[in-house]
Amino acid sequence: xxxxxxxxxxxxxxxxxxxxxxxLIFGVADLINFAHxxxxxxxxxxxxxxxxxxxxxxxxxAAGAVAVxxxxxxxxxxxxxxxxxxxxxxxxxxxxxxxxxILDRGLExxxxxxxxxxxxxxxxxxxxxxxxxxxxLDLVILATSLIGMGALWLFLRRSxxxxxxxxxxxxxxxxxxxxxxxxxxxxxxxALASGLAxxxxxxxxxxxxxxxxxxGFDAGISxxxxxxxGGLGSLPGAVVGGLLLGVAESLGVTWFGGSTRxxxxxxxxxxxxxxxxxxxxxxxxxxxxxxxxxxxxxGAALRVRPWQVALGAALALxxxxxxxxxxxxxxxxxxxxxxxxxxxxxxxxGTAGQVSLGQAGFFAIGAYAAGLLTTDGGWGFxxxxxxxxxxxxxxxxxxxxxxxxxxxxxxxxxxxGIGAMVAAVIxxxxxxxxxxxxxxxxxxxxxxxxEIVAPRDTFWLASAVLLVGAGLVWRLQRxxxxxxxxxxxDDEVAARSVGVxxxxxxxxxxxxxxxxxxxxxxxxxxxxxxxxxxxFGFQVSLLALTVVVLGGMSNILGAILAAAVLVxxxxxxxxxxxxxxxxxxxxxxxxxxxxxQGLLGVR
Length: 603
Known about the structure:
Layout: H1 2-29, H2 36-53, H3 58-81, H4 90-111, E1 116-117, E2 127-129, E3 132-134, H5 136-158, H6 160-170, H7 172-177, H8 182-208, E4 210-211, H9 215-230, H10 235-256, H11 261-275, H12 306-323, H13 326-351, H14 359-375, H15 381-399, H16 401-404, H17 409-428, H18 430-433, E5 446-447, E6 450-451, H19 455-477, H20 480-490, H21 492-497, H22 502-528, H23 538-551, H24 556-572, H25 580-594
Antiparallel strand pairs: 1-4, 2-3, 5-6
Helix pairs in contact: 1-5, 1-6, 1-8, 1-9, 1-10, 2-3, 2-4, 2-8, 2-9, 3-4, 3-8, 4-25, 5-6, 5-8, 6-8, 9-10, 9-11, 10-11, 11-17, 13-19, 13-22, 13-23, 13-24, 14-15, 14-17, 14-22, 15-22, 19-22, 20-22, 23-24, 23-25
């Protein structure tokens, strides 16, 4: 137990370094930097490259990693924040999401996806005090973390530049009137935060001995959890939150096994957001204004006549099956499935204004519900399809409950954590979901006793379900409930003043969105006949979000066309497979910057 406590405190120090950067940026720029975990991964990979490949001394490799991450922080501030000042608050948030995806995929392309050994000349386990065993490496990590935190505290408290950072965090407009260069302070904050992330990446590589380019997502979740636990914007809270999270994870691993580490982190994140969203040391007013607008004012929607929509649907359903080969029809089926998933986010994010970064969780619930009902339960395809949507719709508002009373960035953090937590539960609940083995032998759909296996028939099936989903979203958007959702999206305060129950409206939006995601997940399970937890990672949620932004948030036809572009093109052109995820990030970044209203505009 004592060893677990020491391990948790050492790990918590690295979490605190990440959380400090997240809180610093949030305090100064009122922005959750979703690329921060990717910067952490970049620090770890650059440190490995300098130390292992080039043979630099450990201190020089660490300094080089910090220099690179500082440069990345300045670049992120220039790309994700400065050009978008004065625009909708959602814009910089989506920009950091896009930049994080670009960095993650870029690291994989540069270094390769494999795990590699991180060099460390420091001993482990060479000291023993009582029943506690620790090593020189543990002491170096602890000392480095404490020195970094202390230096940051002294900088903010004792230097004029640090006072400018604190003044900007407290009141940007007042700081500007007092002569503070707010833009310069923002850049400095991103540089400091990214430098801390670089230090954390090197320390984690030294501690665990193995790293890979994909460690950024888990590190980012841990950093967000620590920052939220301590209180977003509170630097002492970031330290306390990091240490508490490290200890909680270490004890969880000791008691329940190593596979539960992520589950503990996600559970802490959701629990804190539910019970005390301001955190342990956060200010009472830490809940900022909601991310209103959702690009609603970004440009007029293009008018598409009903006959044009009907003609396009007739061509897709009637002509495409006659001219396309079987592989192209399989791709078209995938497009229809992901378009249905995107429609769920069109309703949640576009119409109701709740930016969800965890839609893949509901997608997974539907897929597993259908897979288990048809394989273990012996259900037919159609009852399982409907049940998958209903199960997702019932569980959706339940699992999303912590986000219903949150606003702004907290909603995005909560949904990100919830989506990751669903995947972690699926991975660990082996008695029900078969864990990492996944579900094999999911039967194909049937229609009046005949199996639907021909590519043309599966395309028609997916398209029919997509049309039903599109009709449902269209009808809801034009209903009284849709009007209430748009009111919540545009101005929560005004919506509440005219009698809209915010929590109930958001819950209904998530329920309907989860229902559509569940239907899409069921179709995917029967299309692939095999599903596993890694089928529903964060990249799926990001793909859905990119589709929605490209099509025009809340634009139904735009979501379908964007799915054809973003899902169909990479599948049809195999050379694009390696850069597909990178392309999603670039497209999302360029859209937010130059065409936030999407292809067809926002309704």
